[in-house]
Each structure stands twice: as C-alpha cells, then as structure tokens.
Design brief:
Elements (H helix, E strand, L loop, with lengths): L2 H38 L11 H9 L2 H8 L3 H14 L10 H14 L3 H8 L3 H22 L24 E11 L7 H4 L7 E8 L5 E5 L8 H8 L13 E3 L10 E2 L5 H4 L1 H27 L11 H25 L14 H6 L5 H17 L1
Parallel strand pairs: 1-4, 4-5
Antiparallel strand pairs: 1-2, 2-3
Amino acid sequence: MSLSAESDNDDTSGDRSYCFIELVALGAAVGAFAGVRYILNPEPPMLPHVTGRQWVQMNLQKEQKCYDNFRMQPDDFLHLNDILVRYHGLQSTQEFDSLEGLGMFLWACATGQPLRQIKDRFDRSLETVTRKMGEVAEAMIRFSHTVITPKDPTYTHVHHKLYKFAPYFDGCIGALDGTHIPAQFDHNDRPIFLNSKGDTSYNVLAIVDMDMCFTYVGSGIAGSCHDMAVLWECQKTAYFPHPPRGKYYLVDSGHTPQKGYLAPYRGTDEETMEGHHFNMHHASIRSVVEQAFGVLKAKWRILRGIPHYDQDRQAKFIIACCALHNFVMACKDARQPATNITGAADYGTSAWVDANAETDMEIVRRMITDGLYSNHRS
C-alpha cells in the first residue's frame, strides 16, 4: 500500500474517532441537562385521592377547618344533619350520604362556589352535584319554616333590649327592611333584575326580631321592584307574620304609613327637637336589622354574588342562608350560660299597648315622641 493510501486511512479513522467522542459528549450534555430540568421542574407527586365524603369527615375532625368551610362547629353540623334527615326529608343512598350532601351545600353557601368548582372538589359528576344541591336546598326550605318564624307569635313579653325605652316602644316587635342580593342571570332575564345601581339582584325583604334573628324572609323578587311593592307582595304570602293588635315593626321613612308599621319623621318634622329625638331612638332600635344583614352576608359569601343557578334555586339559597343564620345563633345561645336579666319581661305594659291598639300610627308616633322628649327634658 502506498504512503498516500495509508495517510487517507489514518485520516478517516481519526475523523470517526473524533465524531464518536463528540457524540458521547453530546449525549452526556443532554443527559445532564435533562437531569437539571428534572431537579428544577420535578414531576408533581401523586397525591392520595380524597373523596368528597372523606373531605367532609376531615373537616369535622378540626373545629377551625369546619368553621372555615362550613361556618359552624362540628357538633352543630352533625345536629343540623340529624334534623334534616329526621324531619325534613334529606336522605342518604349507598353512593351518596347526607353528610356529604350537607357539606357540599354548606361549602357552596359559605364560599360562594359555582357548580363546576363543587364538582371538582367533591369529584362528582355535574349532574350529581346539581341534583344533590337541589335535594339539600329543598330540605333547607322545609327546615326554614321552623326556624324563620317568631319565637312567640303573640308577642306576650317585651324584649329586654326595649327596657330603657319603656313604655314607649313596648309595642315594637322587630324591624323590617330590604336588601339587594347580587346574582347572575341569563342575558334575556337581566333587564328584569336590574336595580337602580345598574346591577342585577334580588330585592329581598326581611323582618328581624330584637335577638337579631330573621322572623320572615321574602326572596325571589326582582331587583327592579320598589321596596313597597316587595312588601305588598310579601304580605300576601301565608308565612308573613302580620303584627298583632297593638304591635308594630319599625320601618324606614320610605314606607307608606299603615297600621302596624312605625316609620321615622322626615322633612320639616325631622328638623324639630322632638322629631330628631324620636328619630334617634327609632334608628337605634331599628339598627338590629342592618346588623343582621351585615352578619349574614359576612358569613355566607354566596350572598355577595350568587353564581349562575336557575332562579328558583337562587331564591332558595337566600332563604337557606337566613335559616342557617338563625340555626347558628340558636346553637351559640344554647352554649352560653343563662343570664339573669334585670327586670321581668312581663312587666305591665298592656295598658300602653292596648290604649294605642286602634290608634292611627301617626298619632302613636306623636305620643311616643312626646313621652320620650318629656323624659329627656326632665
């Protein structure tokens, strides 16, 4: 073989060796880069699967978690479940028990979750979530008839919070007001539910007693309706607690005068010393309904903006949240030690109430005004 041929073979062999070394180096670099990528962006670990029922049970084992997600103590949750199952038709099946259904409903009301988020959290089909939410809502409506009601429909006793105004507000049995609950609607329904601020909402009327509990809730009326129209509509319902003879609710100045509803002065009457003094006491007592709305909306966040459910379901959510408010208040009161309030609740006020039973509300207001101002000056 010639020297030239040998030289060509050596060059070819050298080139092949060099290429092989390059490939090995490149492979090592790729492997190293892949290792770095794995370290910087590791694959997420497989988490253990937690069913909806297990998630509810986990929350019930810790008071703070239970309150954060369900807005009540574990014992109260179990007590409510027992009431709904025993008396109001909430049922368990082999695939879905009542505890999971109630937990699903309370979580939705407490956090304002729409259906698809509930579906993901409880790992259920959208059809199952929709059906179970409806079943719990129906049970809650039946339950609401037992808790959203006056404790004593005859109002035999005067509430202790009215003692300092005695006997002038002895006929007061609570405060009435309306509030707008924002909600999402289909495009075609939006004009009906537009309120004066340009938002879609329900105009909800509520009556609250002096314990800050709801005794009536009128839900489902469009936000475009005037407050008086809402009241007139609610007064037609079977559950509306009309004030007994000689008793009345405190209302705002926008209400049309009618027996059983005491409004503050407005206009020139409010500018007088007597009128201003009456309005100050009237507002002090009537603030209980504003406080109740504040607590309600702070605890049940779905009322800050109800997601897109059908309208009947949305209206039931509002009533259910008010029923839950009363239930939680009752459970809290039951845990408190009994206190002895100075003065008996049945002190003699019947003469004052009976004397004004058939009197026009304008005259009743004037009599209260004169009595309050006379005491103030003495």
